[in-house]
């Protein structure tokens, strides 16, 4: 495929499509694979395979002749998809099978370098009960006790990649992503995450309306803008550190605060109605001492900046008349 080539699994998704753009800017020849092409912009991949990475023949074709694999494909979504429990079997089966196929067929094809996108969802639930002081240091992952099957599968796959590194000498990098958001991400339909969901609700509302938030809104999170996620991913891949390492923001906010930011950006006066819904852990925040130490870098972009770009993009989608779902 050329002197520097990369495969991006999940290239039709939010992070994957942005990563393809970055790799192209760096001079890579890029092959993308996904069940579908990117929803909001044409892919910049040199080659795009529309295929199911659960199928061996698709993976065999995808890994052929590439130097690096970026494995971002997964069965996933926001809290409304992950934390209801209704999709657990699919999440576990589909994502595990993608990772098993990617590593084994990649190894057989002679691919040496792999990036795996893990998640902050692997951290123990009992360390995230205090919304003001969640513990998400990388070393706190064990004894393991994630709050979702999504987190358990991610933890299993981390160990899978590290096992292949030990046993077969593969070059592996693992990042634990923390709530990545930005333009061209899912913003409706049930798989969207909190920033996009709140931006959509605010964009659709008129002054004086109310918007709904699951729970009391005092649960805390940090949210990382897509550009910094891709930057951290590339820096990790170019380093000699396998990880796992957090790639996330340390700017923690409540969901109520996040809604207020969206309202301020929109210039709208709205009220919040708190309703029952799936919540996930009570508090979560990235811990960036390790990435700062090992990569000499950590995310620093203010949340407000990323929310402004995201809100205006989603408001544009709403104004364009894209059918919205509840």
CATH architecture of the largest domain: 3-Layer(aba) Sandwich
Largest sheet, spatial ordering of strands: 3-2-1-4-5-6-11
Rg from Cα: 19 Å
Average residue-wise pLDDT: 92
Largest sheet: 7 strands, parallel
Structural class: alpha/beta
How many DSSP-defined strands?
Answer: 13
| H-E string | EHEEHEHHEHEEHEEEHEEHEHH
Detail the topology: elements first, then pairings:
Elements: E1 5-9, H1 14-25, E2 29-34, E3 47-50, H2 56-63, E4 68-71, H3 79-82, H4 88-108, E5 113-119, H5 149-168, E6 171-177, E7 180-181, H6 194-204, E8 210-214, E9 220-222, E10 224-225, H7 226-237, E11 245-247, E12 252-254, H8 255-266, E13 271-275, H9 289-295, H10 303-319
Parallel strand pairs: 1-2, 1-4, 2-3, 4-5, 5-6, 6-11, 7-10, 8-13
Antiparallel strand pairs: 9-12
Helix pairs in contact: 1-7, 2-4, 4-5, 6-8, 6-10, 8-10
Structure described in brief:
This protein is an alpha/beta fold and 326 residues long.
Key terms:
2 domains; 10 helices; two-stranded parallel ribbon; UDP-galactose 4-epimerase, domain 1; alpha/beta; 326 residues; Rossmann fold
Description:
The chain is α/β, with parallel strands linked by helices and 326 residues long. The chain folds into 2 domains: 5-180 and 223-247, Rossmann fold, CATH 3.40.50.720; 183-222 and 252-282 and 303-319, UDP-galactose 4-epimerase, domain 1. The protein has helices at residues 14-25, 56-63, 79-82, 88-108, 149-168, 194-204, 226-237, 255-266, 289-295, 303-319, and strands at residues 5-9, 29-34, 47-50, 68-71, 113-119, 171-177, 180-181, 210-214, 220-222, 224-225, 245-247, 252-254, 271-275. The strands form 4 sheets. It has a 7-stranded parallel β-sheet, sandwiched between helices. Strands 7-10 form a two-stranded parallel sheet. α1 packs across α7, α6 crosses α8 (255-266) and α6 packs across α10 (303-319). The longest helix has 21 residues, at 88-108. The chain is globular and about 60 Å long. It starts with a strand and ends in a 7-residue tail after the last helix. The mean pLDDT is 92.
């Amino acid at each position: 495929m050329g002197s520097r080539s990369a495969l991006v699994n999940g290239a039709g998704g939010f992070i994957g499509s942005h990563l393809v753009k970055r790799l192209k800017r760096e001079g890579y020849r890029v092959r993308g694979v996904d069940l579908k092409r990117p929803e909001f912009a044409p892919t910049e991949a040199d080659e795009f395979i529309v295929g199911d990475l659960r199928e061996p023949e698709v993976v065999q074709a995808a890994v052929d002749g590439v130097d690096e694999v970026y494995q971002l494909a997964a069965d996933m979504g926001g809290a409304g998809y992950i934390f209801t429990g209704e999709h657990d079997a699919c999440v576990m089966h589909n994502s595990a099978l993608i990772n098993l196929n990617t590593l084994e067929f990649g190894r057989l094809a002679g691919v040496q370098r792999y990036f795996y996108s893990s998640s902050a969802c692997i951290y123990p639930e009992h360390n995230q009960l205090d919304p003001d002081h969640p513990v998400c240091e990388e070393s706190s992952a064990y004894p393991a006790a994630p709050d979702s099957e999504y987190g358990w599968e991610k933890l299993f796959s981390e160990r899978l990649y590290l096992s292949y590194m030990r046993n077969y000498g593969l070059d592996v990098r693992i990042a634990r992503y923390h709530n990545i958001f930005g333009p061209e991400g899912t913003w409706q339909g049930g798989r969207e995450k909190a920033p996009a969901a709140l931006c959509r609700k605010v964009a659709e509302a008129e002054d004086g309306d109310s918007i709904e938030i699951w729970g009391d809104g005092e649960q805390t999170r940090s949210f990382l803008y897509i550009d910094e996620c891709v930057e951290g991913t590339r820096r990790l891949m170019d380093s000699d550190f396998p990880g796992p390492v957090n790639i996330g923001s340390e700017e923690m906010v409540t969901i109520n605060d996040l809604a207020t930011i969206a309202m301020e950006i929109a210039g709208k006066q709205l009220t919040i109605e708190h309703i029952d819904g799936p919540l996930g852990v009570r508090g979560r925040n990235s811990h960036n001492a390790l990435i700062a130490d090992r990569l000499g870098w950590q995310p620093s972009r203010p949340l407000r900046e990323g929310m402004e770009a995201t809100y205006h993009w989603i408001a544009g989608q709403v104004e364009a008349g894209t059918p919205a779902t509840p």
